[in-house]
Structure formats: C-alpha cells, structure tokens
Design goal:
Layout (H helix, E strand, L loop, with lengths): L15 H4 L21 H17 L2 H4 L1 H4 L3 E6 L1 E2 L24 E2 L1 H13 L3 E2 L5 H9 L7 E7 L3 H14 L3 E5 L1 H4 L6 H11 L2 E3 L8 E3 L3 H16 L3 H14 L4 H8 L3 H8 L4 E5 L12 H19 L5 E3 L10 H9 L4 E7 L13 E5 L7 H9 L1 H6 L9
Parallel strand pairs: 1-5, 1-12, 2-3, 4-5, 5-6, 6-9, 10-11, 11-12
Antiparallel strand pairs: 7-8
Helix pairs in contact: 2-16, 5-7, 5-16, 9-10, 9-11, 14-15
The protein binds zinc ion.
C-alpha cells in the first residue's frame, strides 16, 4: 500500500499507470473523467473518440452486444447542468473557453436521453440496492433482462435543481453519494477550487516544488496549461497536505474554498428533502472525500464507518452502500474492499470501468461503473458504451478487475 509523503510529486515523475487512469471510456470524481493528464490530452481524447466512433460506425458495438454486454451496468454522474452552465469547450469551438471540469457535468437533456436509450435497449432501471439480488440471480443462471442503476457522486446542488425532475419524469430511481463534510459546508472540492482560482486570476503564485513560482496566464490555453501542471501535483499530494494546500492557495488568490463548497453542495435540509423521495437513495462517500488507499487503515475505516453513521443520524437512511471517492485503483484497492465488507456495506462502487457480470456477485464491494461524461454527450457514444465492447477491450477481455 503506497502512502505518499507530505508535499507533492513532480507530475513528470508520476508513474505511467497513473497517467492512464483517466481515460474516456469512463469517468468520475474528479479525475477519472479526464482523458489523461497534461500534455497529449487532446491527442488521447482524439484517439478515444475515434475508437468509439469506429466501434459505432463499423457496427461492431451493436454486433457484439450479445456477447460483450454484462448483466447490468451502474451509471455514474456528478453534475447535471443546463448547457448554458456547461463548458463551451465541450464543443471544441470556443477558443476562449477554459472548463477543465466540464467532463463532470451533463445536461438534463442528455440525462433524459440516456434514461430513454437505456430503456430502449431493454435495460430495467432499478434501485442500486437491488443490484446484489440481480447479480445473485445471474450467478444462478436466472438472469432476467439486463439492469441499470443511476448514481450521482458528491451531492452537488444541481442534482436537486436539474436532475431530480428528470428522474421523476421517467420514474427512474437514483442514488446520491454524500460526504458529510461537504453537506456541512466545510469540505474542500479542490478540483472546483483550482478551476475557480485559475479562471479568476491572471497570475498564479505557487510554492510547489518543481513548478514555477509565478505562472502568468493570458489566454484560455495558458489557463489550461496551468491546470495541466497543477492538477496532478495536487491530486497526488498527501491527503491532508492537499486540503491544507488548496485552502491556502485558493485564499491567496481570492477564493474561499468552504464558501464555494456551500454554494455547490446540497446542505442537510436539501438532502432531507430529496431523500424523502422514494426514488432517491443516499449512500456514503466517506466523511471528507478521502482517497482511502492513500490513508492509514484506522483513518480509512473511520472515514467509511463515520460517514455512514452521520448520514443515518442526519437523514434517517440506512446509508449501507458506499462509493469510494475517486474510486480508481490508486484510491480503492483490496484493503478498502475488505474494509467495506467488514463494516457491513451491502455494496461498494469503484470508478473502475466496466459492465457488471454474474461473477461480480462475489465482489460486491468492488463493483465497476460506467460514466456519463460531459465531454461525450452523444447518444451514439452511449450506445457503444452499453454494448460492453470498449470495456472488454480496455480490460483486455477480463470481466473482473477487482485486485
Ligand atoms: Zn466524489
């Protein structure tokens, strides 16, 4: 288990495996939705986009559906925002756009289409908590129609303002994963804070080793370059050093991280309101949104258990399902899968990419998801992802990725 030391690593020193974490077939909070870090992002994005287009246009995805598709999928979303809020850069036309977190947001219209397409393809949209029973049935050879469950991480307020109505219209159940520190308004959405800092300033003053002390930014491209430098440096800091850094760094550049948290995330009253809808379930997302695998075991256990307790107290919900923050292999591994079992979570979700297969019935605390990514809001991409083929290609035809 790797525990990084205080401070940051030079992004250039990051192992290739980490650079590979965020590619398109997928996504999550806050880095799994990225095509890759730093230089080459546009090239990689082009490659992945091309792969998806080829799989679609060739008919391969559709033809392989019967053999590649799993018994179900769990969709992962973060933000749902009207297009006027979403990043213009997702269109690739606005040269002045700087919107590095745009992959986290889809429009209500795309959510609407995704639900409709999923049902058109024969999937039952089910509450997440029914997934273990569906997997058990599949293992016994009693799989019925394929199933899909919708999840939203972090509890962004736009879930209530823009997504809720779409789910209600379709009578589609959904689960929101909440980190209590965020609902308290005392958490750090460091990726959003970094974006706001870069957006609002012309010069960054930085004291991170290996990075320039002063980073002037004139154009949107300069801002993107600054993001590409700073994002990986912050992402892989020690978990506590990371939060201390972003609070200090943001304040120095005129951004109050906790004020931003209160603006972006539902408070407890709002969570009570949405949780009262029988379509909505609430799951645990650790107390402080920690990358658990890079956290000492006692702290990781506490982050998981106490987040559940707090959600039970505040919302009167079971909160017996967990989504690992970040959810990639660097943030949740075998130790966390065992801890989640030990603590009695009925299932736990990673951001590893893939469909669910019957074999996942034996790995309920290491389930993969399928991201709805703001950079790829086209129905034909969804069509390809639902075929299962890109995930099997990505996972080299392994159905399980739980080690
Ligand atoms: Zn999260």
């Amino acid at each position: 288990m790797e525990v990084l030391t205080q401070g940051c690593r030079d992004p250039a020193q990051l192992p290739v495996s980490r650079l590979r974490q965020g590619n398109l077939f997928m996504s999550s909070c806050p880095d799994e939705y990225r095509d890759c870090f730093g230089k080459g992002t546009s090239v990689m994005s082009f490659v992945y986009r091309t792969v998806l287009d080829v799989l679609h246009r060739s008919g391969l995805a559709r033809a392989s559906r019967g053999t590649c598709r799993g018994v179900g999928v769990v969709f992962m979303l973060h933000r749902v925002l009207p297009a006027t809020f979403s990043a213009a850069s997702t269109t690739g036309t606005a040269g002045d756009a700087f919107a590095p977190n745009a992959g986290l947001a889809i429009t209500p219209e795309f959510l609407d289409a995704a639900i409709a397409i999923t049902r058109q393809q024969g999937y039952d949209i089910i509450p997440l908590r029914e997934v273990p029973a569906r997997l058990a049935a599949a293992r016994e050879g009693k799989a019925r129609r394929p199933f899909a469950a919708f999840t939203l991480d972090d509890g962004y307020r736009d879930n209530m303002e823009h997504a809720w109505e779409v789910f209600r219209r379709h009578e589609a159940p959904f689960t929101i994963f909440v980190a209590p520190a965020y609902a308290d308004g005392e958490g750090e959405l460091w990726w959003d804070a970094l974006e706001q800092v870069i957006r609002a300033n012309d010069v960054l003053h930085c004291d991170l080793p290996g990075l320039p002390r002063s980073i002037p930014m004139v154009s949107a491209a300069d801002k993107q370059a600054a993001w590409d430098m700073l994002y990986p440096a912050i992402r892989y800091m020690d978990e506590h050093a990371q939060r201390e850094f972003i609070i200090r760094f943001a304040a120095r550049h005129g951004v109050d991280v906790h004020q931003q948290c209160r603006e972006l995330i539902m408070d407890w009253n709002e969570l009570r309101e949405i949780a009262a809808d029988e379509l909505c379930d609430i799951g645990a997302h650790t107390l402080h949104h920690r990358a658990l695998a890079r956290t000492p075991e006692d702290e990781a256990r506490h982050e998981m258990a106490a987040s559940r307790q707090r959600l039970q107290q505040e919302l009167g919900v079971a909160a017996d399902m967990l989504a690992y923050p970040y959810g990639d292999a660097d943030s949740a591994g075998p130790r966390e899968f065992a801890l989640a079992r030990e603590l009695g979570f009925t299932l736990a979700l990673t951001t590893r990419k893939g469909h669910l297969y019957a074999e996942h019935a034996d790995h309920l605390t290491a389930l993969p998801r399928l991201s709805l990514n703001g950079f790829y809001q086209q129905p034909h991409y969804l069509d390809v992802l639902l075929s299962g083929l890109p995930f099997l290609l990505y996972n080299r035809f392994r159905r399980l990725n739980v080690a």
